[in-house]
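HUMAN: Spend a minute on the protein record below and explain its fold to me.
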Amino acid sequence: MKSFLSILISLFLFIPYATQAQESIQDELEALFAKEVIEEGPGASILLQKAGKRIFLKNYGQTDLKTKEKITENSIFNTGSISKTFVANAILILHERGELSIEDNLDKYFPDFKNPSLSGKVKIKHLLSHSSGLPDIRKVSENPTFFLTAKDEENWAPIKQAEKLLFQPGEQFQYSNPAFNGLALIIEQVSGQSWQSFVRENIFEPAGMKNSTITNGPHPQNGVAHAYVQSGQKFLESDYGEVPTFAAAGNGGIWSSVMELAKYEKALQNHVFLGKALMDESRQLLAYENWKQETPPFLGYGWFIGNKDDFGVDYVYHTGSQGGFRAFYLSIPEKDLLFIGLFNKPPDHYRDFIGKGMKVLQKHNWLE
């Protein structure tokens, strides 16, 4: 057994190495992100933390090109499809309370499907895992003006007119935004309140996310970042009012900051609003017995599950893309690592930041 003195000596010897590795990680991440943004334009907020300690926290650019307000770690961005994890967790909260079951068929909540045999086959769990087989038959390109303001109900309604499935539920993965509009409507039916209010009361408040908000019609006009796309030498606004389906909040309506998303992850890890068993289940690979797709399953309930073969660790993640907003969120629970990026201008290949960031951590042995 090591003596107390030898343990102290080893700790002191480790501290300079840990500091040096941390500085190297900071430098490499700085090089990765700095080239993607300019200070006098839209930018990003990036956070890497371990065990609650900030390893890398950097903010670039402006939240609003008219006011020139600088982006900070508390700036509120639209998180795009990271929102789906909140809707999924709201469904799981209701499941845990016994107010619904993820095994429920959709005909229990939507008896008005044109073809009732479809809603009689598809279960809530299939919507949660993008494996329902329901086709997205919204005619967005034909009626963009309507979909500029269409909310969850209007985006889900066309799906109920489907005459057949693309595949049998549970057989394949097919990413679906309308599935989460439908889930939002189920939350409202079961809870008796708007799903935005339910998430605010049951996730935001327990997690301490005091400044996060949710689209409900027009997005907040004040206190949030605007998003932009570049056209030549100009930046054009690209968020609510410019982008069809932006108002469909169930699939992309959560607005938050890197700091408040860190609180969200902490609340998940500490089982503040969802019990350990169900939280763990939501972040495990779902294995449907009738899976037929060549690609193995890579989904939980609302989360993508990283392949351990990639970097030697289990990880969960989600990305977001809506209008000019882009986002990524990666958690490595066993290493207590969290990596988040929020952008109000689309960087090239923004999803690659997850892999590139993981390679930086792997290079410095943080994933061992």
Q: What stands out?
A: DSSP finds twelve helices and 13 strands in the chain. The longest strand covers residues 53-60. The chain has one domain: 22-363.
